[in-house]
TrEMBL record:
Matches recorded under SUPFAM superfamilies: Cryptochrome/photolyase FAD-binding domain, Cryptochrome/photolyase, N-terminal domain
Reported cofactor(s): (6R)-5,10-methylene-5,6,7,8-tetrahydrofolate; FAD
Record-given protein name: DNA photolyase family protein
Keywords: Chromophore, FAD, Flavoprotein
Gene3D superfamilies for the chain: 1.25.40.80, DNA Cyclobutane Dipyrimidine Photolyase, subunit A, domain 3, HUPs
Entry coiled-coil feature ranges: none
InterPro entries referenced in this protein's UniProt entry, alphabetically: Crypto/Photolyase_FAD-like_sf, Crypto/Photolyase_N_sf, Cryptochr/Photolyase_FAD-bd, Cryptochrome/DNA_photolyase_1, DNA_photolyase_1_CS_C, DNA_photolyase_N, Rossmann-like_a/b/a_fold
Organism in which the protein naturally occurs: Microbulbifer variabilis
Amino acid sequence: MSRQISIQRGLVWFRSDLRIQDNSALYHASTRCEQLAAIFIACPETWKNHDEGDALVSFRMACLQKLQGQLQTRNIPLYFLEVPEFSLVPEALQQIIQRLKVEALFANAEYPLNELRRDNAVREKLLEHNVSVEYYSDRTLLPPGAVRAASGDPYKVFTPFKRALIQLCAGSQVKPLPTPRKIPPSTNSEHWPKWLAVDVKGNRKLTQKIPSQLLGYSLNIDGSGRVKGWESGEQAAQKRLKAFAEIIDQYQAERDFPAKDSTSRLSPYLNSGAISIRQCVKMALSQNKGLWQGGDEGIACWISELIWREFYTHLLTDFPRLSMGRPFKEETEQIPWRYDEGLFSLWASGETGVPIVDAAMRQLNETGWMHNRLRMIVASFLSKNMLIDWRWGERYFMQHLIDGDFASNNGGWQWTASTGTDAAPYFRVFNPYSQSQKFDPNGEFIRHYVPEISSLSNKEIHEPPMIEGYPQVICDVSAGRKRAIEVFANLK
């Protein structure tokens, strides 16, 4: 690591980048600062307003605990502060930085609108006190705004975006950054106080102790740092990446079958930042002879899925309305969505009478995760067959997903509801019965999560007859499809 020490004291602000390897802000801070500490600021009221649920926040806090231990091996202390909301962060950071005599703040950029506004306010506040603030592009392969059409406009459809991104990336090597240097304890950790009082909306304590609870949240983290059975932290992420590398060639052929463990299951780690997008892409490219497209079809397919994540993140900065609960296709504001709380509750609890939908929702409620094929099926069932506002489903997912990434969740729901960036026509509606027959042909997945119909035959289990203990279907799938198509066709 080449060192260019120019700053006596620096502070790294961790958010959704909870790792020490290939962390842009941490790496650059470690090369430029003689003394270095880190901070994490929890904002539970804002997180609640963003519909971030117990599973997501529990996993984030579990990863933070693991991160603190890793930073200690580099002699970098990690501070923790809890303030209710984003609006209090600039004043809190200003106080902390002044008390700690910090000269520069380093962080990796976040792109939803409220996060951008918070970060701009922090920059303005600290610049008033001659503290430099440096934000790095770390969550995506390329910074949002870097992938443009020849006209200079942002891409609104995935395929040309993908083509342009690959063209920009293919000529350069995807090279994750090294682990930050180990700072001598006599230089660093011995000179940072254990805690400070911070006067922001009441006396609050900046401390090097990570709490076991947060206001308004039930943190369910077991003794080994697992959340709903998911191992947390950077080492668990690398272990998962290594395991997936052994089966990635099967990805395209088997990824749509929820009874098979054929997907990467890396989304919680990517969302919390326990692993980087560059580390994932590097693994894929190294196994595909450097090819972004072509070569092994399973690897190329997974790379394409990672670019979908990139695409949705880039859209947030060009179309702020996506962060405001509004559709990408503005004409779909006219859709007369239904707001039936009783029917929605049956969908959410997995009591619709459509087995594949019920199994998927029960998987989400039990594990905090849902197979991607199933996400499309249940979203289509809610927004098309039931014609219930997609935003209700988007919110429910965020409240229950352990991998709740705002950009991907919003993008996926709008894609399925035909309100978002999709080249396919609005009359694409997933038939849950044919999807079930195709992707869970023997009913293995359904039987696991809907045991009350497990005795049915492989044929009956997809569309069961009336059976005691299992609800009748709550809507006519065929009639619902017809109604949705008519509603979209009548948009002006």
